[in-house]
């Protein structure tokens, strides 16, 4: 009861109540910011991993010592390894794609239609056209951003220039060929939408002068986190000299940088909660100073030091607890509506926040993890409760005789 009365504002205690209000707002904003930022970074990583692994295989098997002419037999053996969902040979080469709107570098990947159907990130996100003509080798499938940048629509020809051309007495001449666009896909990752061209496998073999050969075999597994355990069975199943790499090796620098950034952001944003907790110390210290006469009266009528300490501890804990709960609810609301918040801020500020050209993804996603969110809430509660101990202890140590000497 006494703690609640101390929290309520009176005319001569308005300044103390204002400090308590700022402490509450600081805790709330600190917790909400920490939850939202960590959830957005988790969502960014989850989406990025999903896009990368959705388009690229989890394990890449490349031939060594000799050309990959026996890719069909190797693919059949690799597909039978326990834990492997499917294996597919492919042709891959860098090329220059050009259209009415200009010319851009592109990664041309030759695959079979049945294998492209298994890459659901592409086959289920065909925005224009279909893969029926792709199966018959009548054209290529390209990303929506590439089509937009080159000024190409469905059915228009896209000219692909490869440095691996014909050998002539004058040297190697680039190979130039136009292919009709039979499908346009959007996977939601700007780097892929703006740089991938899928070509029928046989057509790609002819185009890159790889008759009877494949660039590598791509393997998709059931559990991407357990690719390490499949390396040895895959090497044995290949029954030839191969070089095996997994998705973690190919992206180790990127994901390591992402993890470091995430940890540093957590430490920096924790400072916001710490500063808010220090506001609780300042507010309670001023409250103890203002209520010294009340404390002295309570002590003279029988209140123990423990009782006085509990009064001020409850006062400070109430600010920290309610601020943490409010911050959690605010953070939850923002995470559930993060894309709408982004669009609203972009409209208000007149600029594009979270541009896909920089962050690779076309939508912002927040992924709240239970363990991480619980850690943030417990951290805020812990800092808030620790901040109340010293002012409450000073109030309990107050000598009633000294406090009432000049009253």
Characterization of this structure:
The protein is an alpha+beta fold and 407 residues long. It is built from 18 helices and 10 strands. The protein folds into 2 domains: 2-50 and 254-404, no CATH class; 66-240, no CATH class. The chain has a 6-stranded mixed β-barrel with strand order 2-3-8-5-7-6. The protein is elongated and about 110 Å long. The two termini are 25 Å apart.
Q: Care to count the β-strands?
A: 10
Number of domains: 2
Rounded radius of gyration (Å): 32 Å
Strand content: 15-25%
Overall mean pLDDT:
81
Q: Are there runs of 5+ residues with pLDDT below 50, and where?
A: none
- Structural class of the helices, strands and pairings? alpha+beta
Topology pattern, helix = H, strand = E: HHEHEEHHEHEHEEHEHEHEHHHHHHHH
Q: In order across it, which strands form the biggest sheet? A: 2-3-8-5-7-6
> How far apart, in Å, are the first and last alpha carbons?
25 Å
The amount of helix comes to: 55-70%
Main location: membrane
GO cellular component, one term: plasma membrane protein complex
GO biological process, one term: lipoprotein transport
Domain ABC3 transporter permease C-terminal: 267-400
Condensed summary:
This is Lipoprotein-releasing ABC transporter permease subunit. The chain has 407 residues and is α+β, with helices and mostly antiparallel strands.
List the helices and strands and how they pair.
Elements: H1 2-7, H2 14-55, E1 59-63, H3 71-79, E2 84-99, E3 102-111, H4 113-118, H5 120-123, E4 126-129, H6 132-135, E5 140-143, H7 144-150, E6 157-168, E7 171-185, H8 190-193, E8 196-200, H9 201-207, E9 216-221, H10 227-238, E10 242-246, H11 247-250, H12 252-290, H13 292-300, H14 305-336, H15 338-349, H16 356-359, H17 370-396, H18 400-404
Parallel strand pairs: 3-8, 5-7
Antiparallel strand pairs: 1-9, 1-10, 2-3, 2-6, 2-9, 4-7, 5-8, 6-7
Helix pairs in contact: 2-12, 2-14, 2-17, 12-14, 12-17, 14-17
């Amino acid at each position: 009861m006494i703690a609640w009365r101390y929290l309520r504002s009176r005319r001569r205690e308005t300044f103390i109540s204002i400090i308590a209000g700022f402490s509450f707002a600081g805790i709330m904003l600190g917790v909400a910011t920490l939850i939202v930022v960590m959830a957005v970074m988790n969502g960014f990583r989850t989406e990025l991993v999903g896009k990368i692994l959705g388009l690229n295989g989890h394990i890449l098997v490349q031939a060594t010592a000799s050309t990959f002419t026996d890719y069909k037999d190797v693919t059949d053996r690799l597909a039978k390894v326990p834990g492997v969902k499917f294996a597919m040979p492919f042709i891959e080469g860098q090329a220059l794609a050009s259209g009415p709107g200009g010319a851009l570098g592109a990664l041309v990947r030759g695959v079979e239609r049945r294998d492209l159907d298994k890459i659901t990130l592409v086959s289920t996100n065909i925005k224009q056209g279909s893969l029926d003509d792709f199966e018959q080798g009548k054209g290529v499938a390209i990303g929506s951003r590439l089509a937009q940048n080159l000024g190409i629509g469905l059915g228009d020809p896209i000219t692909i220039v490869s440095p691996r051309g014909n050998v002539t007495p004058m040297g190697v001449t680039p190979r130039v060929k136009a292919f009709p666009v039979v499908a346009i896909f959007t996977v939601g990752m700007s780097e892929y939408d703006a740089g991938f061209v899928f070509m029928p496998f046989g057509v790609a073999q002819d185009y890159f002068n790889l008759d009877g050969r494949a660039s590598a075999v791509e393997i998709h597994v059931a559990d991407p986190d357990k690719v390490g355990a499949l390396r040895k069975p895959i090497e044995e199943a290949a029954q030839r000299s191969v070089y095996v790499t997994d998705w973690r090796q190919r992206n180790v620098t990127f994901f390591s940088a992402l993890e470091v950034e995430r940890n540093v952001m957590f430490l920096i944003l924790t400072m916001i909660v710490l500063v808010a907790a220090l506001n609780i110390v300042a507010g309670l210290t001023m409250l103890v100073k203002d209520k010294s006469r009340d404390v002295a009266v309570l002590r003279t009528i029988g209140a123990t030091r423990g009782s006085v300490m509990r009064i001020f501890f409850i006062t400070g804990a109430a600010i920290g607890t309610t601020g943490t709960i409010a911050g959690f609810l605010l953070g939850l609301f923002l995470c559930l509506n993060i894309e709408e918040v982004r669009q609203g801020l972009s409209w208000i500020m007149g600029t594009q926040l979270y541009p896909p050209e920089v962050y690779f993804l076309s939508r912002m996603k927040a992924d709240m993890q239970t363990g991480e969110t619980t850690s943030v809430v417990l951290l805020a509660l812990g800092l808030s409760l620790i901040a109340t101990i010293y002012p409450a202890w000073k109030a309990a140590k107050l000598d009633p005789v000294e406090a009432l000497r000049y009253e």
